[in-house]
Design a protein that fits this description.
- Keywords: Cell membrane, Elongation factor, GTP-binding, Hydrolase, Membrane, Nucleotide-binding, Protein biosynthesis.
- GO terms for molecular function: hydrolase activity; translation elongation factor activity.
- By secondary structure, the protein is an alpha+beta fold.
- It is 25% helix and 34% strand.
- α12 runs antiparallel to α14.
- The longest helix is centred in the C-terminal third of the chain and has 18 residues.
- The structure holds guanosine-5'-triphosphate.
- Guanosine-5'-triphosphate (GTP) binds next to α1.
């Protein structure tokens, strides 16, 4: 395709503003799929994505419109996948900015717009959902101009749902988004935008060709990974797969090259010709690192192998999460897994539960701490509270911090500020735009991974929006808190907390556990402790009625039978010395309220 006939664009939007629906409409209008095939949303093709309505993996569709080739690149909307968003945006020359006519500009709208501007995009505002009775397109138009500073006088008024404004959007893309630049005769230079595992094709790689040509039979080299591969297919998605003889400069499409694992492909890598390589790689490459870790254990110890297999399978399609085996005195064998963020964690956990039918216990999420040891012991990265060295071996602990931007309607501002303060936040900025406050806070990631997002949503009744990025590690007065049940530490419940928050969290945890652990035949103390010092304590009273009492003490086997019977319906219990803790207790205890 000649360069001047190509337009590459993505759609940026806050979650739920209608990105996927609009993408589907564009595909439908340009004839990529029949009405019947359109029945389900096409771009979000994983089951969970559909159910949650969240785009996780970037996908691209080639659209034909009035003699032009339009490549629509879907980008993930959530902060956990910020780097994938950034790479997808780097592959385009323009973006549709979709804003909900009833909601207006939100935190992720802004975060995405700024990224888009950084990539020098031509941005076309689209005011969506104008069919809604609550739509206020003129107010939203003004917001786009005032808050973002974009000219919105030609913003398309659209309804992705009812199909209003779709042709105008397509025409604006052709008229306003610049065509890509590139040199067909230069050495091949293409960006690896995304990759996924397909059971029939193997690993499929989404690429944006900058210079040169990609063809079947070509030896290619991944410049960052340093590996070479033989291309065996080139093509595009409409969204059905279609093979093409080649991919030229400016084009977006896929290749396959007999690659076995997604882990061999790194998003942002530069693909070049192995025989005639480009002089330098594309800028901006970074390896994604997990930022949140937790342990995943099978409820039933017999499921360990099944868990191992399932995790390995999931990893085939998602190289951004990591796992290694872990043993816990309390929970037995499991895996320590690393994720890009909390949503990423939830998605993986949910897929394991649902697609692989596993019952899991998840330990408290933890961030990556940097430890400096005393006596020149060097530096240590800590992913698991259980590995925390003795306190007197630690010179300093550093924890990751983020900068968060929150949008919230005025009436919820007070409680949101309090939430941020309670989580050790440092307020950086507070301004008003329309009827809403824009707050910027620096926060320790440690305080955010628990339930910050849930709290934010519930305090603001869903109206607050939130976006963040990491700003590096800072020293903090952090300690490891152990939870002891019947005087035995439960390793799965130990956590690293700020000293100032330890007592409150410890007390809370003990109170929770008191309600969650069923009574036993004896009294059970529950304690929170830092080192040898108990900072909170509760006691579960003994059961008054002993089911074995009527056995007159004599008949041991009968006694045992009764106790066994009592055990039934307690299958999901974990034994701690002599105390059984139901799985629900773990989950509930780990969810800080
Ligand atoms: P993520 O993929 O989660 O980022 O969301 P999204 O931005 O892709 O939103 P999606 O297309 O899934 O739409 C969110 C909700 O808004 C869905 O329930 C859609 O049916 C609805 N919706 C989308 N466009 C319109 C519209 O023009 N009018 C109305 N009334 N509803 C719409």
């Amino acid at each position: 395709t000649p360069l001047d006939k190509i337009r590459n664009f993505s759609i940026i939007a806050h979650i739920d503003h209608g990105k996927s629906t609009l993408a589907d409409r564009l595909i439908q209008r340009t004839g990529g799929l029949t009405e019947r095939e359109m029945s389900a949303q096409v771009l979000d093709n994983m089951e969970i994505e559909k159910e949650r309505g969240i785009t996780i993996k970037a996908q691209t569709v080639r659209l034909d419109w009035k003699g032009y080739v339009l490549n629509l690149m879907d980008t993930p909307g959530h902060v956990d996948f910020a780097y994938e968003v950034s790479r997808s945006l780097a592959a385009c020359e323009g973006a549709l900015l979709v804003v909900d006519a009833a909601q207006g500009v939100e935190a992720q709208t802004l975060a995405n717009v700024y990224q888009s501007i950084e990539h020098d995009h031509e941005i076309l505002p689209v005011i969506n959902k104008i069919d809604l009775p609550a739509a206020e397109p003129e107010r939203v138009r003004a917001e786009i101009e005032d808050i973002i500073g974009l000219d919105a006088s030609e913003a398309v008024l659209a309804s992705a749902k009812s199909g209003i404004g779709i042709e105008e959007i397509l025409d604006q893309i052709v008229a306003k988004i610049p065509s890509p630049k590139g040199d067909r005769d230069a050495p091949l230079k293409a960006m690896l935008v995304d990759s996924w595992y397909d059971p029939y094709l193997g690993v499929v790689i989404l690429v944006r060709v900058i210079d040169g040509v990609l063809k079947k039979g070509q030896q290619i080299k991944f410049m960052q990974a340093g590996t070479t591969h033989l291309v065996d297919r080139t093509g595009c998605m409409r969204p059905k797969i279609e093979q093409l003889p080649e991919l030229g400069p400016g084009e977006i499409g896929f290749i396959t090259a007999q690659i076995k694992e997604v882990a061999q492909t790194m998003v942002g890598d530069t693909i070049t010709d192995a025989k005639k390589p480009a002089a330098e790689a594309l800028p901006g490459f970074k390896e994604v690192q997990p930022v949140v870790f937790c342990g995943l254990f099978p409820t039933d110890a017999n499921d360990f192998e099944k868990l191992r297999e399932s995790i390995s399978k999931l990893r085939l399609n998602d190289a951004s999460f990591s796992f290694e085996m872990e043993t816990s005195a309390a929970l037995g064998f499991g895996f320590r897994c690393g994720f890009l963020g909390l949503l990423h964690l939830e998605i993986i956990q949910e897929r394991l539960t649902r697609e692989y039918d596993l019952d899991l216990i998840t330990t408290a999420p933890s961030v990556v701490y940097h430890l400096t040891l005393t006596h020149g012991g060097g530096q240590l990265e800590l992913h698991n509270p259980a590995d925390m060295p003795d306190p007197n071996r630690i010179e300093e602990i550093e924890e990751p911090w983020i900068e968060a931007v929150i949008y919230v309607p005025d009436e919820y501002l007070g409680p949101i500020l309090k939430l941020c303060q309670d989580r050790r936040g440092i307020q950086k900025n507070l301004t008003y735009v329309g009827g809403r406050a824009q707050i910027t806070y620096e926060l320790p990631l440690n305080e955010v991974v628990f339930d910050f997002y849930d709290r934010l949503k519930s305090i603001s009744r869903g109206y607050a929006s939130f976006d963040y990025h990491q700003i590096g590690h800072r020293p903090g007065d952090l300690v490891k808190m152990n939870i002891l049940v019947n005087n035995e530490p439960v390793d799965a419940l130990s956590m690293i907390v700020h000293r100032s928050a330890a007592e409150a969290r410890g007390r809370h945890m003990c109170e929770r556990l008191k309600d969650l652990i069923p009574r036993h035949l004896f009294k059970i103390p529950i304690q929170a402790a830092i080192g040898g010092k108990v900072i909170a304590r509760e006691t579960i009273a003994a059961l008054r009625k002993d089911v074995t009492a009527k056995c007159y003490g004599g008949d041991i086997s009968r006694k045992k039978k009764l106790l066994d019977k009592q055990k039934e319906g307690k299958k999901r219990m974990r034994e701690y010395g002599s105390v059984s803790i139901p799985q629900e207790a773990f989950i509930a205890a780990l969810r800080m309220g």
